[in-house]
Write a structure and sequence with these properties.
The structure is a homodimer. The first copy, chain A, is of the alpha/beta class. In chain A, strand 13, helix 9 and strand 14 form a beta-alpha-beta unit. The first copy, chain A, contains 13 helices and 27 strands. The first copy, chain A, folds into two domains: 163 residues, FAD/NAD(P)-binding domain (3-Layer(bba) Sandwich), CATH 3.50.50; 218 residues, 3-Layer(bba) Sandwich (FAD/NAD(P)-binding domain). The longest helix of chain A is centred in the middle third of the chain and has 21 residues. The two termini of chain A are 43 Å apart. Chain A is globular. Chain A is 35% helix and 23% strand. The first copy, chain A, has a five-stranded parallel β-sheet with strand order 5-2-1-9-21. In chain A, strands 11-18-12-13-14 form a five-stranded parallel β-sheet. Chain A has a three-stranded antiparallel β-sheet with strand order 6-7-8, with no helix packed on it. Chains A and B meet through helix 1, strand 5, helix 6, helix 12 and helix 13 of A and helix 1, strand 5, helix 6, helix 12 and helix 13 of B.
Chain lengths: 446, 446
């Protein structure tokens, strides 16, 4: 016992930054725990660099996923590693911060304790930045038989599904089965659904049609199913119309005011009773907050988001903050959209408020400065809505989207790699990645 | 029935390149089937571009794996996609060639038939280019509990094991368990073992030591176990000594004349009875030919390689060729080493011999022109043995290795990406890829 105790001491002495043995007690320095290394979480951590506190970041992955480019991983523009920035590298320059890769199983807000697979962690302050997950709206079969687009795993799994379906179809002699394999259905006409539909139809036309001469391009279908009257509901109506026109011109079939009522393996049923035989169903129809099971029922609003004060503090726990897709935040009476700039600005506010709390000052309310939002449709065509008032469409909106995302992508080498891939794709009209790695397929089978 | 027949006809009409319906019969044009899209298989296909024959390439993957860089995928230099070239892209410029992704289950050399999961394929000529697989030399537990390094899957699985072990160790309070997680054992002192040992120790020193401040670098061990008296037995003895010196200087522990007698989960036993607690056992100790189960026992030599005539034809089947790691070929009384240049040159010979056979001419013997062989050890240190007589070591051998591999890597974009990664790594001493994707870990668990 003495021996092993010695070793733990030796361990702590060598690595004073990671007081593993003291995680289940609080010391003299206040401990701020941030759960989630997404946009909001990482921003909070960075802005707390000079705080007189011990900062602990927890995430289930040891990388930050740049979610806006997930659809580009799924459609073979870039490799998964390019949009996954190593968290530990990010933290190297932050001397008061350490990281634990763990899945958070529950939080006790009264005892101020976090439970992970193998650790119990006490916090003084907590930031919930756990993001969102797919919301299947109670549609039977959707969780089991559709693919979602929220994680890097999801994106690679979808890429393998697309390529794998082409491989299977290319040696299939049954005409109906071929059509089923080559019908890709995207549920949801928000930014993710639109961007994926556009990138997918371009992948098919530019690359796969050439790679698979045995496949009749006319048999390949990309279907977009949207419950609303117009795509990209957060943009002005004429941009929605432009988006639909662009997608339709490329061959995407759009069903408006249509809901999926049932997802089966290899088929979906629409609310009007139509059956679509499709071997790839991609679910982008909604997200909900992804909160580790709390022991206390938190007051939540739409999409399971947690109700917070204007300071982003939980209603009953002033030492706990919720940010990004976890928090239900209104600005001028309208709920926020759940996009990256909101999460980033909330991270900044929370970091400032935590430092104020540490100094005994009252936290200040969050005020969102709306720089705008943008979506990409296809090559040379995008839409943007700047500062909540300036609409933009076409080539410049497309270029703006590329510029913004290149700027925000973490890591210089990643930026160069992505820029290289984009230029290559633009010049050759050909995606770099169409290897069928079959990793995820085998995994989902087992 | 009539309807479905119509559809098949329509299918063939639209896609004359892929006579799927006629795979189980022969037509007027002779059909050459090549199994395996490795170095030998792809070279054969390319050199047959002008043959008056129908060329069918079969591989279980839709990409060519550039095996010499697998160790760089495993140690985070480059992404897996960079060294996996899409076969269909390679074949685009070859009008007489088509490709089927399938696992070959068996070959009937008498009936000239190949059996895959869902097709029966008749050939007139056959090229066996199926490469090699790990040979575990009858060591108990080695197939189950060690990682091999023959496929892209293997390389990513190993990368995830390395990063995953660091993640686990960083939150582990048990000192012995930490040491076990941080002990990496490589079995085999050939080129793969040496290159992996060097790249791994550099990954640890340059990147992981910085990323995991909680881990004492002294606890991390890279052990190389070699049954022979010297590493890289195919090189002159003084280069072997140089190699061992370079690796030892960096901290690799080398056990010479030592065999592994037993592999357990988390530990190995050596033939002298020593137990090494190690949570990563990488098996590079041997390969054997990887031949789809034939119905006829083929005469084989060492490492299960198939005996062939000097023309690379099978002893009893003049219409079947074996190339690369599948064939047992001697040059000047010595068996070939099983390296890429041999496979490439054999591919050229086989393509020429097939064309001679098609013209009614007798095939000609294979004559290997030994340009030499090279291995990389660590940064700025390599060994090369040119033309079987000129030994080279140090910086120039290292540079030569990089140049050769960059030159042979298929795809301009891949070459640029790899060159970029190398330059980045050389300047920053930091590997780009250390995300723990955990794909393979979850898969092997299930």
């Amino acid at each position: 016992m003495a021996k092993s105790h010695n070793k733990v001491e030796k361990l702590n002495q060598k690595a004073p930054l990671i007081p593993l043995t003291t995680l289940c007690q609080t010391g003299s320095t206040p401990r701020i725990v941030i759960i989630g290394a997404g946009f909001a979480g990482l921003r909070t951590v960075r802005k707390l660099a000079k705080a007189k506190a011990e900062i602990l970041l927890i995430d289930r992955n040891n990388y930050h996923t740049f979610i806006p480019l997930l659809y580009q991983v799924a459609t073979g523009f870039v490799t998964p590693e390019t949009i996954a920035y190593p968290v530990r590298k990010y933290l190297r320059s932050l001397p008061n911060t350490y990281f634990i890769r763990a899945e958070v199983l529950g939080i006790d807000f009264v005892a101020k304790t976090i439970k992970t697979e193998n650790k119990r962690i006490i916090y003084d302050y907590l930031v919930l930045a756990t993001g969102s997950q797919a919301q299947f709206l109670g549609v039977d079969g959707a969780p089991q038989y559709s693919l979602s687009m929220r994680t890097l795993d999801d994106a690679v799994r979808l890429r393998d599904r697309i390529i794998g379906n082409f491989e299977r179809a290319s040696i299939c002699l049954n005409w109906e089965r071929r059509e089923q394999l080559l019908t890709f259905t995207i549920v949801g006409g928000g930014a993710t659904g639109v961007e994926l539909a556009g990138a997918l139809i371009e992948l098919i036309e530019g690359t796969l049609a050439k790679d698979y001469p045995a496949i009749d391009p006319k048999q390949v279908k990309v279907i977009l199913i949207h419950s609303g009257k117009r795509l990209l509901a957060d943009f002005p109506p004429h941009l929605s119309e432009y988006t639909a026109r662009q997608l339709r011109r490329r061959g995407v079939k759009i069903h408006f005011q249509t809901r999926v009522s049932w997802v089966m393996p290899g088929a979906i049923e629409l609310d009007d009773g139509t059956i679509i035989e499709t071997e790839a169903i991609i679910w982008t129809a909604g997200v909900e907050a992804n909160i580790p099971q709390p022991n206390d029922e938190l007051p939540t609003a739409k999409k399971d988001k947690v109700c917070v004060h204007s300071t982003l503090q939980l209603l009953n726990y002033p030492e706990v903050y919720a940010v990004g897709d976890v928090a239900y935040v209104k600005q001028n009476g309208e709920p926020l959209l759940g996009i990256a700039p909101e999460a980033l600005q909330q991270g900044t506010t929370v970091a400032r408020n935590l430092q104020r709390q540490l100094q005994g000052l009252p936290p200040q309310p969050f005020d969102y400065f709306n720089k705008g939002t943008a979506a990409i449709i296809v090559r040379n065509a995008g839409v943007a809505y700047l500062f909540g008032k300036i609409p933009l469409k076409g080539f410049f909106a497309w270029l703006l989207w590329l510029g913004i995302h290149l700027y925000y992508l973490p890591g210089l080498a990643n930026r160069l790699t992505v820029l290289g891939s984009w230029i290559r794709d633009y010049l050759t009209k050909e995606r770099a990645i169409r290897q069928f790695l079959a990793i995820y397929s085998s995994r989902s089978k087992s």
